[in-house]
Amino acid sequence: MIKKILPPLIYREQFAQIFFTIREVFGILWNINPRLTILVLALSSFFGFLSLPIFYLEKLILDKLVGSIGTSNWQAAIYPLALLIGARALAETIRNVIGSIQSYAKQVASRAFNIRVEIMLGEKLATLDAQTINDPTFQDRYNKIERQSGNRGWSLIMSLTDIPGSILGLISSAGILLFLSPLVVVLAALVTFPVILVDRDYVKKGYELDSKQSLRYRIYGWLASYLQETKRYCELRILSLQGHLVNRMKNISNEFLEEDKNLRAKREKSRIWTYFPYLFYYGGTNIYFAFLVITTKISVGSYQMFLRALLSVGQNFSSLFNSFSEIYENYVYVEDIHWFMNLKPQMNVNENGEKVEKVVNGIEFKDVWFKYAEDKDWILKGINLNLTLGERIAVVGENGAGKSTLIKLLTRFYDPSEGAVELDGKDVRLLNYEYYHKRFAVLFQDFETYPFSVIDTIGFGDVERMKDIEGIKVAAKKADIDEFVESLPLKYENPLNQQFDKGVQPSGGQWQRFGIARMLFREKADILVLDEPTSNVDPEAEEKIFNELLKKSKSKILIFVSQRFSTVRRADKILVVDKGKVIEQGTHEELMKLDGKYTRLFKLQAKGYV
Ligand SMILES: Nc1ncnc2c1ncn2[C@@H]1O[C@H](COP(=O)(O)OP(=O)(O)O)[C@@H](O)[C@H]1O
Ligand SMILES: [Mg+2]
Q1: Which compartments is it annotated to reside in (predicted)?
Q2: How confident is the model at residue 558 (pLDDT cuts 50, 70, 90)?
């Protein structure tokens, strides 16, 4: 029984969650701008407090008015009245002005909050490692945060900044009533209790509904993005998928509307009985106030003031409660952010490790074994390799053989499960991660196609040298994309996406050349890595690009994964990877003599060309 009456006190967990959420959001806001934070909170408090003088002025006006009814000297009565009315109007104006400044400051704060969270997420993600990021449970939770970070800030900041105003409003109004009788205040708190009980249950139910809907919500988001993104247009159009997808969206949204409606209807039904205590209380106190007027215990003005205070207590109480509910609804989101921001990379990134500025001899794989997770199969099985400065190495092998995995260990996106990768005799795990990455220029199979200018697209290869336009032009020329760039209306300033004015959409082959140019612009890198990025380029162009790369990489290590044997055969060393092992290695001629896997793969492709 007691448990039923006092649930808000017993649900300590919920209180703790609300407290946690407020603390986290406040912390972020404070970090963005302490002055803005103080401003919004102070404005909110002042706004809440201003009801006190307004109520009091109204009381004075009414009393003066009643006292002057039928007076013979109206001039004597009207002056003080006019003064009071003026003061009342002034107070109201101040309140309005504060209200609008406050709502502007809140908007600024909530935008800043959203932006800050987005930047925070991006910055934090950059500190994590591939192992952490590719974990499916991580992905699930992270995607949820990412999806929501656009719209949660608004409700969080609004509710947070409303709290001081509600509390001050509540204290001022309750303070007025306390003059009259503490019992009135105690009763006011008691009659709002049933409302809280019902609402608290429904906040919880709404929250459960949210989680129940979350997967469908995600599907809805995917459907919407398929329909809305222009790059998907052609395929959807050919398949006539739009109508089908729209129907799926409609079905899901109808389910949502129905479920929300049901919950709301139930809530309103359960709420009905909670209005009665309030009705009796409000009616009762009202009659009591009237009684006090009649028996001349209080003036008519005071009657009005107490009544206003009474209403204001109820209003502030429920707005306070709404703020807390809203904050509670955002708890999981805030908790997810907290989790994410406190993640530690599983891989040791060795900020204090040796900062290697260049490669002297090369890289060695020493009996490297690797699996993606404890419970998965071995992907690399005892790899021994030497990649020496000045060498051009080709990697061939069937799909799924482990070529890309090998590259990911070389570039240290993963560490070996057993064995070691060494740079000039030093285990790469002991080196500073960032500096190790500076040694590489890599073009992955799914390399990026930045929509910004040509300068950005190529310059991103070495952000410290982005101002070196001549260098960018040289790289473009080497990658054989300079003529295309010169033909663009804005040349090197031209954006590479049609969504921009004068923007263009490069073809697959052109994108690859931009990718190669970006790589060539990264001149400080000692190790050039290409993981099958050239498959879209026509053979003649590939020949040209490859020549350039061979020339460029004379003093470097060039390692490339390719299925094109016309380029593979020109490497100094060819590695044949099969089921996680390097089964053959040597020059083209040596491998052809072996008459093994390489020869078979080579002949297979040669046949395809005739
Ligand atoms: N992130 C990953 N998690 C688990 N398994 C993976 C992951 N990436 C690749 N694999 C698996 O490792 C094997 C080798 O893949 P990969 O190195 O990409 O082959 P290749 O580049 O030679 O085609 C494949 O069986 C693939 O399914
Ligand atoms: Mg691959």
Answers
A1: Cell membrane
A2: very high
Output the six-digit token pair for 139. 């992905």
pLDDT at 281 over 80: yes
Q: How far is the CA of 579 from the centre of ligand 1 (A)?
A: 11
Q: Find out whether the beta carbon of 397 lies less than 6 Å from any atom of ligand 1.
A: yes
Residue 379 beta carbon below 6 angstroms from any ligand 1 atom: yes
Whether residues 197 and 145 share a domain: the answer is: yes
Q: Which residue has the higher pLDDT, 407 or 444?
A: 407
Q: Which domain holds residue 477?
A: 449-525
Identify the residue whose C-alpha is closest to ligand 1 atom 26.
Answer: 400
- 113 and 177 in a single domain? The answer is yes
Amino acid at position 116, single letter = R
Which CATH number is 482's domain given? 3.40.50.300
User: pLDDT tens digits for 478-537?
Assistant: 888 999 999 999 999 999 988 888 889 898 888 888 999 999 999 999 999 999 875 666
- Ligand located closest to 413 CA: 1
CA atoms within 13 A on the CB side of 482: 13
Residue 388, amino acid = T
Q: 536-555 burial string, b = 16+ CB within 10 Å, else e?
A: ebeeebbebbbebbeebbee
Q: 402: Cβ below 6 Å to ligand 1?
A: yes
CB-ligand 1 contact for 405 (6 Å cutoff): yes
> Is the CB of 450 inside a 6 Å radius of any atom of ligand 1?
no
**Confidence (pLDDT) at 256:** 92
- Domain count across the chain: 3
User: Residue 262: is its pLDDT beyond 80?
Assistant: yes
Ligand 1, atom 24, residue with closest C-alpha: 400
User: What string of H, E and C letters represents the secondary structure of 290-355?
Assistant: HHHHHCCCCCHHHHHHHHHHHHHHHHHHHHHHHHHHHHHHCHHHHHHHHHHHCCCCCCCCCCCCEC
Distance between CA atoms of residues 310 and 287, nearest Å = 13
Distances (CA, A) of 131 to 134, 339, 371, 522: 6, 17, 11, 26
